């Protein structure tokens, strides 16, 4: 007796590829149907804007010197005592690029232990 050749079951990958292809075509068509911006409008350029630190942020220089609102401060308790309750809920630090990471972590930890709610580090991209 001859054995019947078993039909191999095909995987449904062809159907999946077709669905993905149709979705690709849909998004290409939907993206081109959007109205273009008026030709007379020119968009604002922000490349030349100078980013500045927020006025209520703690600025830490490369040598570890801290200033708050332009006044040099020496400790986290001194900073938090001069802040309002709302400002203590979210303390922003603007560190110098050359400040050692260990110093930044120590400052953040001392602010948390002194009673700061949330310590946020403001970066260059966040300023722009």
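-> sequence recovered:
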């Amino acid at each position: 007796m001859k054995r019947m050749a078993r039909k191999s079951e095909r995987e449904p990958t062809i159907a999946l590829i077709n669905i993905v292809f149709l979705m690709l075509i849909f998004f290409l068509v939907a993206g081109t149907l959007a109205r273009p911006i008026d030709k007379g409008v020119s968009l604002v350029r922000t490349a030349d804007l100078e980013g500045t630190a927020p006025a209520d942020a703690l600025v830490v220089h490369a040598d570890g010197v801290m200033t708050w609102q332009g006044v040099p401060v020496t400790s986290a308790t001194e900073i938090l005592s001069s802040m309002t309750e709302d400002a203590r809920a979210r303390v922003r630090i603007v560190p110098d690029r050359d400040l050692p990471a260990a110093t930044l972590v120590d400052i953040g930890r001392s602010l948390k232990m002194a009673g700061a709610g949330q310590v946020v580090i403001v970066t260059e991209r966040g300023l722009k």
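Residues 58-127 form one domain.
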